[in-house]
Design a protein that fits this description.
The chain has 370 residues and is mainly β. It contains 2 helices and 23 strands. It is elongated, with a radius of gyration of 29 Å. Bound molecules: magnesium ion (MG).
Length: 370
Amino acid sequence: MIRIGVCRVLAAVVTTLAMFHPSGMVMAEEPAAVLGRRWKQHSMTQPKPPVVAGQGSAGLAAPPADAVVLFDGKSLDKWVSDGGEPAAWAVRDGFFEIKPEAGSIQTRESFGDIQMHIEWASPSPASGSGQNRGNSGVFLMGRYEIQILDTFQADTYADGYAGAVYGQAPPLLNASLPPGAWQTFDIIFRGPRFSADEKLLDAAHVTVLHNGVAVQNNEPILGPTSWLNFLAYQPHEMEGPIRLQDHGQPVRFRSIWVRRLPARIETFAEQAEPPHAIAKTPSELAAFAGAFQMGDDEAKPPVTMTVDGKGLIVRFPDRPVDMPIVPVSERVFEFVNTDATIEFEVDASGKPGNATMHIGGSTRSLKRLK
Ligand code: MG
């Protein structure tokens, strides 16, 4: 609880600090993204992503079993226009194509944290230049655009290349394939987190593989993507529709699926139950201490156990840290930080002898050395 609390407070502090202009003036409306940047948005002098040969799509692979298929090659039933009307883009033979000026489309369903696969192809033959050459985009939660553009042997500003977090983060590499070739995006997206009082707790993050090449590596998204200006985060729901952009050029799409990513159970929300130690005197503990051969390999350095406070310290020859164990019954010790125990044999007089370590559903023998 405490540890995640500290992380969240720090994140909030960082966000708040970023709202202060270096002049000391409070810039309440200024998105954090603006401050301290080396290049203006859409800079043509920002280095362009180096070219690398992408893999392309080897054909239509079956989606994972738990995927929501958003296009099955036949219909746009899962999509609507921005106004909620049936999507007006043209479905052809296993793919669909932007109908220029018909408007963007978005999914009927809403999504939050996702893994997404989408295949797209730039118009062929290519026409237009810069941002008017096969422009579209995948808007995650309807707000955060991963740019689609024909940037195969074509130039534009770095933060507008295919695979860019549009206007924010150029792709690490230019993995574009020629016009007409089916290209893939595999996107792993974590939405932003907002507090109950609508403060930003954590930015959205995105990882993108373009044609099998990682072009965004858990990149923090600075706010809603936008042309000409950075925008500050506005609180929103945990899920939103995925939009595909109509930028006036007939980009094609096929094989679109999404997997909802489950939230990880909070590691620090509850403290792990500490061992319920029982009291043993130093001399009682000393009887358990000693050197032990783990397993059958006599050549291996021994495991040692020494008295330390109310328990023992175990030192494995090939582990970098000492591990405390505490007695939880007459002859069983529990590791403080690991879900494991060491159970000692005792002879008729009660003297501890060999032991067995229980971990992960299996056992290791510990033979006491003289
Ligand atoms: Mg676009």
